[in-house]
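ok posting inputs for the alpha-L-arabinofuranose job
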Amino acid sequence: MARIKVDIDRRIGIINPSIYGGFIEHLGRCIYGGIYDESSPLSDERGFRKDVLGALKALRLPNLRYPGGNFVSGYHWQDGVGPKEKRPRKMEFAWHTVESNRFGTDEFIEYCRSLETEPFLCVNLGSGTPEEAAAWVEYCNGTEDSHYANMRKANGYPEPHNVKYWGLGNEMGGYWQICAKNAGDYAKIAVEAAKMMRWVDPTIKLIGCGFLEQVDPPSWNLEVVDKLAGFMDYISLHIYTGNSDYYTNVAGPVRAQRLIDVFNATITIAMAGKKAPRPEIAMDEWNVWYKTFGSELEEQYDLSDALTVAGFLNVMHRNCTTVTLSNLAQMVNVIAPIFTSPEGLFLQTIYHPFKVYRDHCHRIALDAFVDSSSYETRVVHEWSGAGNESPIETVPYLDVSATLNEHATELSLAVINRHKDEPIETEIHLGDFQPKRTALVYEINGSRVDVQNSFSEPDNVTTTEKRFEKAAGAFKYQFPAHSITLLKLARA
Ligand code: AHR
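and the output
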């Protein structure tokens, strides 16, 4: 019998809702044919696909990152503003296509306003310059009688866009990046960009590039955090996991925990003795991604991937004191929870845990005690292959996030049962929290771990809502095999 014990006084910290952010990039059918389709009868007068907007709106994203991704390292923002017929069609070197620029800054801001989400722009520190980055801040946030602020006004936006989050480049240490850099060169350009961007608007929040496990040892972080201390508010951590072996796949979030540990350690070392505030961690790209390559990345997700996404969210909750901003990469068609055709859309399996957590987890993360049987595996991303496995990890079948609301009147237990075949009977002890007998249950499951959703079978994996009538200070619950269960308890 497994055990979960919760003590509402054992608090880890406050979960920042900004961890439920999203990301859209000029890549494949994410923008064109995804969120934006000027010729579609499903679109509004601005070209925004209404069905996609509705599915995204339901996720209540607190922020949305744009325009890349790898794309941004060759992007010049001025190509994407002003009259559409005058915008240049340009060769695009990140994904090897031609960019029409018909969707740009102002369209993105309008999209964010429709979603009621905070825009998060990433600047080009590949082929771009600090001056160009500062000009973009001026275009978006400037209120003076100055060139770029006036350009925005002339384009029909008299009020500033007030963009709060700005990424200082994307994955600049990656060899695949346009104009990739070593840590020293990156730090130099990022400091100068940060200075100029803040001279335009001192209130903005800046996200520096963290190291990538594929190419750089933690020395990247040591140098970048050291040199950008005081010039960035966050350092980014990008993590994609995935493996076609089920148990390796659902252990992916263990890898995320290890990377967060490395980040915290390197930030602590690099910041020792400095007066500048400690940068927080922005997991501003995270997801399961291992099946698709090339320039489309139309990953089809199964139930196991949904369990992995829930595991990522549990990790973020448990690390809420250091991970305070995150972006699911990406949102539509490209490694995404929403998948479109010209005729409609369906929700991929990973949509469901994201929505259930967003809707039903609370702000205070609790340090739950979990005693569950476990398995051993080496965590390895499908692409890295043999030789790049982690050491053997012990992975508990049950993975739990316990969260409490501010008045301590509502408690949510998000429980993943990673066991492929067996339900797990569990004793749950809630200490001083005496719940009402009736708990609400949101269960995400499907007939097999490899079952997917599709246009013809959109609900193979979905969320089932039910009631559980035997909640008490101590009670038993059986978590079904390969499931995510959110138990929502109200204080009696
Ligand atoms: O999200 C897809 C790509 O993954 C992004 O463009 C890049 O930043 C990362 O490598």
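notes: Residues 252-271 form the longest helix (20 residues). Residues 25, 68-70, 170-171, 238, 285, 329-330 surround alpha-L-arabinofuranose (CB under 6 Å).
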